[in-house]
Design brief:
- This is Reverse transcriptase.
- By secondary structure, the protein is mainly α.
- It has one domain.
- 43% of the residues lie in helices and 9% in strands.
- It has eight helices and four strands.
- Strands 1-2 form a two-stranded antiparallel sheet. A two-stranded antiparallel sheet has the order 3-4.
- The radius of gyration is 21 Å and the shape is flat.
């Protein structure tokens, strides 16, 4: 255990919430799946994480309401029905980026990449650079590919935990993408 964590644990005036948050960080559980078994559409039960991911993928793709007519990634940008391909009329200021960074909820889950907590804590140092990235994205019409990737997480609703129909998908987006959205 590092000196920083040891000192935080020794603080007697720390709130219960901050103490438990620190304890969870120090003694983080394994990231293995909490879903013990999952049944596929043929009623076969799977316990391997890779197969459970495949079952969820099949189920979530089957219930998706977006069709290829709604989204076709092969459409060239010049055929999109936009009045302008860029948002170069908009510019982002360092102050606006700092405000977005301060408003980030560091306790919310995000996908892989720079965590919300690090973005929030490093805000004053990185705001100027993030401003340039945001302004480039707006003026060029390019949204960074890494910021478009999300992790689909199955969230249990109710009923039998082995049925994929009892889960709904939630998408965890990169924390960085939230800065440009803000």
């Amino acid at each position: 255990m590092g000196y920083f964590n040891y000192e935080k644990l020794r603080q007697t005036n720390a709130s219960k919430k901050s103490w438990w948050n620190l304890a969870k960080t120090l003694f983080r559980r394994s990231r293995s799946s909490k879903i013990s078994k999952l049944r596929d559409q043929n009623n076969q039960k799977w316990s391997e994480d890779k197969m459970k991911a495949h079952v969820f993928n099949q189920h979530f793709a089957a219930i998706c309401t977006m069709t290829t007519a709604d989204y076709d990634k092969d459409i060239s940008p010049d055929k999109l029905p936009l009045s302008t391909p860029t948002l170069d009329l908009f510019t982002v200021t360092t102050r606006e980026v700092e405000k977005c960074l301060k408003m980030i909820n560091a306790s919310k889950a995000t996908s892989e990449g720079i965590s919300s907590k690090i973005l929030k804590e490093a805000g004053p140092v990185i705001a100027e650079d993030l401003k340039h990235i945001c302004n480039y994205s707006l003026s060029s019409g390019d949204f960074p590919d890494k910021w478009k990737l999300g992790l689909i997480h199955p969230l249990f609703k109710d009923g039998d935990t082995t049925l994929p129909t009892n889960y709904r998908p939630i998408t965890l987006l990169p924390a960085m993408s939230k800065i440009l959205e803000g």
